[in-house]
Amino acid sequence: MISPLPLAAIPPNCEARREQVTAFVREAMRTVPPEIRARSWMGFDPAFSHQLAERGWVGMTLPKAYGGGGESHFARFVVVEELLAAGAPVSAHWIADRQSGPLIAKYGTETQKRFYLPKICNAQAFFCIGMSEPNSGSDLASVGSRAQRRGDGWVLSGRKIWTTNAPHCHYIIALVRTSGSAADRHAGLSQFIVDLSSPGVTVRPIHDLAGDAHFSEIFFDDVLLSDDALVGTEGQGWDQVTAELAFERSGPERIYSSIVLLETWLNYLRGAASREANCIALLGRFTAHLAVLREMSISVTHKLCMGESPVVEAALVKDLGTEFEQSIPTLLADALAAFPDAAEDAALTRTLVYAQQIAPSWSLRGGTREILRGMIARGLGLR
């Protein structure tokens, strides 16, 4: 049963970091146009990630013993919020920092922790997610990729899809079957760290409507893995990936995907008082939704700080957040169309076009709306 989301606030010591982060990121993004900043956590820039790592802003929640900051999830929340609000390109280190690193810290062997975590904290190891597969939709339990024992290691065969930034990443953590069949559902699934430069690994980019190639399909053709590629306990991959998804769905990125577009529109309104007056209701709607979603996200972060795994609560925030994110380009397009004779703002138009093209994917990444609502219904005892 889902528990109530507690009212929570960012602790003052974490909030105090915001000014420093804001000053840095505003200067770093000062000359970057909004249509580029709108890509934010899809923007791949290793040099920028290295700058963040030098300031201790990558791997903030990972243990100090492995190069991390040993800080709370609230400290990371403040940094991430400011990066996203400015449209900073965080994609290079994003997945490793958000979920792969914490997964290894929680379930990995000592050898894995000492090898991977310092590299993640230094922005020297980039990870992608190996959950979804062709023909499986969002049904992760039906994965067909399989790792079989051979000697003192494993042989991996199969495919993964929607592996964001795979052509640029060093590793993937893949959820695969190690025993039984798809009919066994959650039983028999395990997770492996796979070096993407290994023989037998092929990465094929998939181009989206915006002309980018973030998504990829990965082929594993008899890839040899050592025994220490296994993360956690064999056969416990479902429990592990469920905990990982709580990290993936709980952050502020699930409500800020359209924030640069919204900011660009506000700047446009400031230069046209008549249009601003006609958009007050819409502006109020966006403000109210964003304020509530932010408070919910902070409450989920509080649960993470308490050592909980708020799987259902994170799914709720992700579902509502995606609905909000997708509504912004749609409603702004209607608002702009209400003034057909107004002078066009080229930067706003380019940013809006990008958001309209990419927005459909927002309700796919991190779990489809249908899957999330099924989880929420179970959490409420409705199914």
Count, helices: 14
Task: Give the mean pLDDT.
Answer: 91
Low-confidence stretches: none
Based on CA inertia axes, which overall geometry fits?
globular
Write the H/E string, N to C: HHHHHHHEEEEEEEEHHHHHHH
Total number of strands: 8
Q: Pairing-aware structural class of the strands and helices?
A: alpha+beta
Main β-sheet description: 4 strands, mixed
Walk me through this protein's architecture.
The chain has three domains: 115 residues, Orthogonal Bundle (Butyryl-Coa Dehydrogenase, subunit A, domain 1), CATH 1.10.540; 108 residues, Butyryl-CoA Dehydrogenase, subunit A, domain 2; 140 residues, Up-down Bundle (Butyryl-CoA Dehydrogenase, subunit A, domain 3), CATH 1.20.140.10. Helices cover 47% and strands 14% of the residues. The protein is built from 14 helices and eight strands. A four-stranded mixed sheet has the order 1-4-5-8, covered by helices on one side. The longest helix is centred in the C-terminal third of the chain and has 27 residues. The protein starts with 11 loop residues before the first helix and ends with a helix.
Describe this protein with a few key phrases.
Butyryl-CoA Dehydrogenase, subunit A, domain 2, Butyryl-Coa Dehydrogenase, subunit A, domain 1, four-stranded mixed beta sheet, alpha+beta, globular
